[in-house]
Amino acid sequence: MTGLPLAVQRPAARFTIPPGAEADSPPERRGVARDGVRLLVARPAGIEHRRFYDLPRLLDPGDLVVINTSATLPAALDGRLDNGRDAPVHVSTALDDGTWVVEVRRPDGTGPDLDVRRGSTMLLPDALELRLEEAYPNPDASRPRLWHATPARHVLLVDFLARHGRPIEYSHLRARHPLSDHQNIYATQPGSAEMASAGRPFTAPLLVSLIAAGVTVAPVVLHGAVASPELHEPPLPERFEVPAATARLVSSAARAGSRVVAVGTTVVRALESAASASGEVRAARGWTDLVLGPHRSARVVDGLLTGLHAPEASHLLLLEAVAGSRLVADAYDAAVDGRYLWHEFGDSMLILPERSGGMVS
Question: Is the CB of residue 41 less than 8 Å from the CB of residue 335?
Fold first, then answer.
């Protein structure tokens, strides 16, 4: 997965989220349209403050915007451990053999329960028993956040969650919100434990405006696993697909000298997982364990639309792999000074580094 121990990799950007700068509800609940959130535009020449609906005027005809059409699952379940204690469960994904990857949370929802023991059994809705088999992805971890788990009977995970689950939400939110608030408008393929939130500000009129401005929009799929907001672990293996048509569009944009702008870190991971050492993208599907960072910079993506990530989050390493540490640090300094809002319902950034044949030095 990487050439360096993940534990020693730290993003260069250093910042603290200001008090009151965590978005505690969707923008629509705050009187702001989906595409009306603030957009910080970071280029080597400087920082600009715009609104998300300005995007068509910030890109050039011929640029390619790549979106992730994975839809969010209601992946949080109420559970009870075999010792009788209530324990929320976040379902990260189903593996190819029908087993699950899950995170057991503390009863108050403030973080993962690191004291759960191997072999524990959980009771889920519809009397479904779930046995925690071993730590995931490292079976030898002593106090794991995630577990490889086996349900006592076969169920279709998407259907089970649709009947019994709710969206995964964290403590920065002041209320629960329906699944529709956690969906991107173009999401068509259920599979992500949490919303690919960089795409949330898009609206249908904005997509039409992009196309009318000569910007091409193309899809990939990457089903995002449960994030690690408290422990800042690197991303897990995730299922992805880059269609042949999208691969051709990426190649065409590169040959024409146009930008390939990824909408979110999930898109970066999908495209870069389908890229050769020379930066050529081919159709690909399966599981990716690619982790971008100091050891592996981006070969394909040279523009990034993203939300604002927490300090020390592994996503920041990916941003730096696309745009370089200096530009990312400048962007976050400007976001702090400008009182931008963090997290999935917050504001956005458009990061446009200097282009150098698809590679960032």
Answer: no
Choosing from 144, 164, 184, the residue where a domain stops is 164
- Computed over every residue of the chain, the mean pLDDT equals 93
Structural domain contains residue 169: no
Q: Is the backbone of residue 70 left (phi > 0), alpha (psi -120 to 50) or beta?
A: beta
Please tell me the total count of domains within the chain.
2
One domain for residues 118 and 11: no
Q: In what order do the strands lie in the sheet with 64-68?
A: 46-51, 38-43, 348-351, 303-307, 260-263, 64-68, 216-223, 238-242, 284-288
Give dist(CA 197, CA 315) in Å, integer.
13
Cα–Cα distance measured from residue 260 to residue 305, given in angstroms and rounded to the nearest whole number: 11
Residue 114 belongs to what domain range?
Answer: 76-164
The first and second tokens of residue 356, run together, are 């150098």
Domain boundary pick from 140, 164, 188: 164
CATH code where residue 212 lies = 3.40.1780.10
Q: Are residues 82 and 59 in the same domain?
A: no
Is residue 360 domain-resident?
no
**331, 47 contact by CB (below 8 A):** yes
pLDDT category of residue 359 using cuts at 50, 70 and 90: very low
- Residue 311 CA to chain centroid, in angstroms? 15
Instruction: Tell which residue, 77, 80, 87, has the closest CA to residue 114.
Output: 87
- Report if residue 85 sits inside a domain: yes
In sequence order, the β-bridge partners of residue 104 are 89
pLDDT at position 219 is 98
pLDDT of residue 229: 75
Q: What is the pLDDT of residues 41-92, one digit of tens each?
A: 999 999 999 999 999 999 999 999 999 999 999 999 999 999 999 999 999 9
The answer to whether 125 touches 78, Cβ cutoff 8 Å, is: yes
